[in-house]
Design brief:
Elements lengths: L7 E6 L9 H14 L3 E7 L10 H4 L2 E5 L2 H7 L1
Parallel strand pairs: 1-2, 2-3
Length: 77
């Protein structure tokens, strides 16, 4: 890869980084925004898939996949 070529970057986060209201979500959102300026970013995150609809993440990332958190199912039992 040359200096001008875009890399394909997969970012995995333990929670959806939007809205960026607290430490880790702020950090992860800004990391995604910075990388997306020059690279092809794909996001895989845990959370509520419905909450990912219509967020700026879709504009920043080539793909956004949100899976339900398996830990939240254990807590509900």
């Amino acid at each position: 890869m040359t200096r001008n070529e875009a890399a394909r970057v997969l970012i995995l986060t333990p929670q959806l980084p939007y809205p960026p209201h607290q430490g880790t979500t702020i950090r992860n959102y800004n990391l995604i925004a910075g990388l997306a300026r020059r690279h092809e970013v794909h996001l895989l995150s845990f959370g509520d898939p419905e909450k990912s609809q219509g967020t700026p993440l879709a504009d920043l990332c080539r793909s956004v996949k949100v899976e339900r958190d398996p830990q939240s199912r254990k807590r509900q039992r």
